[in-house]
Amino acid sequence: MTSPTLVWFRDDLRIADNPALTAAAERGAPIVALFILDEESAGMRPLGAASRWWLHHSVESLRARLAERGVPLVLRRGAAGVVVRAIVRESGASAVFWNRRYASAERAIDSELKSGLRSDGLEVQSFAASLLFEPWTVQTGAGTHYSVFTPFWRACQALPAPRLPLPEPQLLHPGSAGVQRIVASDTLADWNLLPTAPDWAAGLRETWTPGEPAAHDRLREFVATDLPLYDQARDEPSAGATSLLSPRLRWGEISPFSAWHAATGAGGSARFLSELGWREFAWHTLFFFPNLATANLRAEFDNFPWPQPDAQALRAWREGNTGFGIVDAGMRELWHTGHMHNRVRMITASFLVKNLLIDWRIGEQWFWDTLVDADAASNPFNWQWVAGSGADAAPYFRIFNPELQAKKFDPHGLYVQQWAADASPLKIVDLGLTRKAALGAYDVVKRSGRP
DNA sequence: AAGATCTTGTT
DNA sequence: ACAAGATCT
């Protein structure tokens, strides 16, 4: 019996353009695939509810597709460092391959495992798969990381172009099926990832098909029909011109390399590529600032005089009952579909922080819980961008006016009509007064930064 | 990835 | 009178 190669899947729930899986296939030995639900290791952020829903269906899709190719996907729950060692023992694996992760708790787990397994004599390899540019390869002239997007993205584009995506590896080796030891697996149902009592996921089911095949279908459709109009239409939430790739990228059902080359091959859109760039920049930032979700990137924002949060206002924001059509439409779209148009994310976030004066971390946590694309880097990065506390952030005095934004980007009210036709017109705040209050609070931050 | 207001240019 | 552009916050 040949000792197998263990491929540990994490944020890369795909078969195509999966360098770890391809390298395992080339190694020739049978493959055992593993996915761990790690709710135990120190520092792991618990998945939000919408993320758990997506994960369930995406893992199910991956399991079925690997099974068709003769590769068992073992599911286990527990601290990854312990589980991987157990699976190595149980399977008799002599090599362990995975694609890299970039958040700090995950990196700590992975590097400890890599050195531990290697000193046990195993072959361990990690691969670049989830980012176009490894964070440490993008450096300023001074050898530091970037804190402003434009020079960051310029530096990325001066690096060698992103590699071509890898084709699906050949996984079925004649005679290899069934020769592996059987390794016990949880069932997905054991993990209780889906909501019950109540089952609030009907809107998610209507909206999304998780899994690699649907991700590629969407990419093809986006490139063929939406990309030509992208630059002009991406900011109109009723236009349906955005890629809808965010949850697929977050879970790695499709790689950024596939998205990059599909877009450039179709004539490209500098704007769409730069959106991929913002995703890169968010991960670049998280890599060098691991507390991005909890700490202000600009330390002077620690002096922001947040008032006691208004529980009623917060609830109205969450439920889409603020009386501002575009805010309410966005929050309802989010609740129903687990997604919100990018422009509207900025508007609703600005409203929470700058009109309700509620700490960006509270909004970030709500998005974390309700977005199917909740991403450990992009979500806190973008909240800090809106709040003004982040990297290359919106200046503190840039306060969106939701009514002007609606006039500009939803001039016919189609988006508001779609999501908030029945919303109450009663406005919970005065935009002018709350704007002044926010400017006053930011002034405190500004003055605190001076000697 | 902005808003308010002031300035300049065109009817 | 109004719009586009510059400037400050």
UniProtKB/TrEMBL annotation:
GO terms for biological process: nucleobase-containing compound metabolic process; response to light stimulus; response to stress. FAD binds at Y230, T242, S243, L244, L245, S246, F272, D373, A374, D375. GO terms for molecular function: deoxyribodipyrimidine photo-lyase activity; DNA binding; FAD binding. It comes from Microbacterium mitrae. Residues 3-132 form the Photolyase/cryptochrome alpha/beta domain. The record marks W306, W360, W383 as: Electron transfer via tryptophanyl radical. PANTHER family: CRYPTOCHROME, CRYPTOCHROME CIRCADIAN CLOCK 5 ISOFORM X1. This is Deoxyribodipyrimidine photo-lyase. Its cofactor is FAD. The lineage of its organism: Bacteria, Bacillati, Actinomycetota, Actinomycetes, Micrococcales. Keywords: Chromophore, FAD, Flavoprotein, Lyase. Signal peptide: none annotated.
